[in-house]
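We give its fold:
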Amino acid sequence: MKTSLAHALEGEEHRILRETVRRFVEEKVRPVAAEMDEEDRFPRELFGEMASLGLTGLMVPEAYGGFGEDLLATVIAFEEIGRASPALALSLLAHTILGALPIVRYGTAEQKEKYLPRLTSGEWIGGTAYTEPNAGSDAAAIQTRAEKVEGGFRLYGSKVFITNGSEARLLVVYAKTDPEAGHRGITAFLVEVPAEGFSVSKNFEKMGMRGSPTSALYFDGVFVPEENVLGTMNRGFYQVMHGFNVERLTIVAISVGILREVLEWMLEHASVRKQYGRPIGAFQLIQEKIARTFVDLELARTYLYLAAREYRPDEDWRLPAATIKIFAAEQATRRALDGIQVLGGYGYTREYPLERLLRDAKLMEIGAGTTEMMIRVIARTLLRSWGLSDEDLEGS
């Protein structure tokens, strides 16, 4: 019986990758996932092991030690890791999609040669620093500035909610180089840390995604040489907006992984747990929760795989990326709650992973663009296609 149309979109190399990542997850990740959450511990040792499988080089060309720019392979890998540890998948996403991919897209030959092998080998952890206390969804409102000095720039400002912030050795940092130009005056910089004038807060205590460190970063005159400008001066905002498409598609893969894990726990428990002399899977209300979880999983995964297979970096993918992000994120949270309900008292304990999956799932409705911002993206994109101008939509 064919149980998933999504698999029809895979090639043989994707199936081999899935099995390889699945074995790694079962042998190395799942045994420590609960401990990572409980201790809020970043598993640095796993990055070395993921590097040996090519996972720290996802979306990086093979010439630099990467896995290659195959987005479908990338989302399959994140899905498999996200089943056992959404937190590890999130840190890997920050490393590959937010840290390395901008260098692939916009870096000079020298920047690629210098930094990509260090990232793909797992020697260095990467990340990006964009969000600020007053600039989250309003990406154009960043205040961090880069002042031109002899030989380069000095950065002044702060960033917040930075995944891998306390572990990263290389950060893609966005700063205003022309404050009067608004979003047209933002530039990206490659910043090696630690550095003089750089400091990092203690990691935030979070509801979920524990083990994936999140912190605030402070730049007090951090020097960045001229050759570490990433891409074109004053085009950093557009680089970020373009990168959102891949970030949103890959973070959806974590939601899909959560949905898969929740469904399997539902099925296992409903098959063995008995009430009134019958497996609880015989009860229609339990069956409804199982069926709806499968429907959400199948729709989210098939749409994601199709989007990943058809993705072209030179095309506008805001609409499909926002569409699947809303659906997968909201359903992962909802079905994790249903999973807890099916397991009953067991689901409410930390002996089972359902409560952790619920806490982790909630971030998907916030990170990489809140659900509210995705609704705005979809509505404005559709209305523009029907002739409304940016002036008509001002303030929406």
User: Anything to note?
Assistant: The radius of gyration is 21 Å. The CA atoms of residues 152 and 227 lie 8 Å apart.
